[in-house]
Amino acid sequence: MPEAPKNDTASEYVVVDKSKIALEFIENVTSNADEVQKKVLGEILSRSSHVEYLQRYDLKGRTDRETFKKVIPVITYEDLQPDINRIANGDTSPILCGQPISEFLTSSGTSAGERKIMPTIEEELNRRSLLYSLLMPVMNEYVPDLDKGKGMYFLFIKSEAKTPSGLVARPVLTSYYKSSHFKNRPYDPYTNYTSPNETILCSDSYQSMYSQLLCGLYQNKEVLRVGAVFASGFIRAIRFLEKHWTFLCNDIRNGTIDSQITDPSVREAVLKIVKPNPKLADFIQEECSKDSWKGIITRLWPNTKYIDVIVTGTMSQYIPTLNYYSNGLPLVCTMYASSECYFGLNLKPLCDPSEVSYTLIPTMAYFEFLPAHRNNGVSAKPKSLSEKERKELVDLVDVKLGQEYELIVTTYAGLYRYRVGDVLRVTGFKNKAPQFSFVCRKNVVLSIDSDKTDEVELQNAVINAVNHLVPFDSSLVEYTSYADTSTIPGHYVLYWELRHDGTTPIPPSVFEDCCLTMEESLNSVYRQGRVSDKSIGPLEIKIVESGTFDKLMDYAISRGASINQYKTPRCVKFEPIVELMNSRVVSSYFSPKCPKWIVGLQQWRNQS
Prior knowledge:
By secondary structure, this protein is α+β, with helices and mostly antiparallel strands. The protein is about 40% helix and about 20% strand. It has an eight-stranded antiparallel sheet with strand order 9-10-11-16-15-14-12-13. The longest helix is centred in the middle third of the chain and has 24 residues.
């Protein structure tokens, strides 16, 4: 990364001017939210008026909201998958979008166990870059002088695959980091990172993590903010430091880079930064050798003002660990985005994680909202909307304070009235634009990192696993699950209560086979996290005493649950319940090895 210009008053004016323009943009689009939304929908529909999908529903080139809502259905990924597969298999006719599809973005959500792939266009990179450009002007309103130092962010690329069409399929952040928008970005003090591009773009996760940590430690006094995309990723970096700090100290002491880092471009980039610094190496060694790692972030990077990570949704489980390592530094969630679309940003970034709200930026896409009626039941997939539900859909400016809604988007890249799957709650308004807190991802019961396992998938995995118990005349009475993040990386825990009618004891190896079968049955995002990303630990099955789930029901009823409506929860999170389950564990077993996972998407591998 280029260093900041010295005494360049003109560049300071440019930064101030850019920040002012960004804040004025936010003010303008939120003050005119409905007019902007109307314009966005008109642009999307006029650009793609000739595409097959819109012609299929007889839109006839109309761009008004009324006709659009009347004739275009609300859909899920499964509804759109045949059209997406045609594009992936090489059909270049305008099926979904008037502009050429440039690549596919793989989602952390899955369909039939495989990652969803979202078509995108080159122009979307401009929209993503726009949202990124708004983050630091907002942040600087709350934490001044961030341009006087650097950010230590742990950013990584992930594996990608090619579809038969030749178009690449990869995660949205990998796409962005590999784009010219990121690699050739002009100097901006707010995007001045300790990690050289080469370390971020290294495909070997060990080499990437090691080299980014080495550069971050070497520049420790310049670091004003630290972060990663997800809280789990940042904690993984600290865990890596715990394991490898002696090697890192040695490199800082001697101005070298460990021999395990073999990527030539990474070595060259790092050695331009790291020079012999025995004094710094002694300091790091002293801090890392102490018995407690409490506050290690503020000890090693003393000028750090906040941690920039996602801690909403399932990531909230990592807040206590982050507080421990940081001595309670502010945890900042800056933006809300997905593979389908980048949505909005947090205009009050220093708020408590429990109060994070995102303002949807009206220029990003056309937004609609379906009132959410959550209950304890979980369906396999969203059903088609009834006529009553279609009439309940509301536009961005018509949502009601305190209400929960399912987010539906129409994008420039060819998604029309698409159900994202996120449930949001309206918490307030920025001018005429609503602000939302993230409530949950529909149907997800377990998540450690970017994985999302729903109840149906979990149930199928359990069914497959208990087949190993049949020869021993043993059966599963009841089960529940828990995302255990007390370990790094976190892992899935299954609590099983068994009925054993046989006389032969069940060997530990059989329960280990149950663990592995469950992992083999879970989706490709989970298996990638286990095999490639190392972001998820081995699955664990805990066998509990007979009668444990009766005790669980008694506890729920004592807290007001109806005995007539009680159903065993398929995932537990409430600490007293977790303590109850753990107090009745008689044995536990871990998956003995990683499940099978191969780079790429199964459907395309089958065709090759």
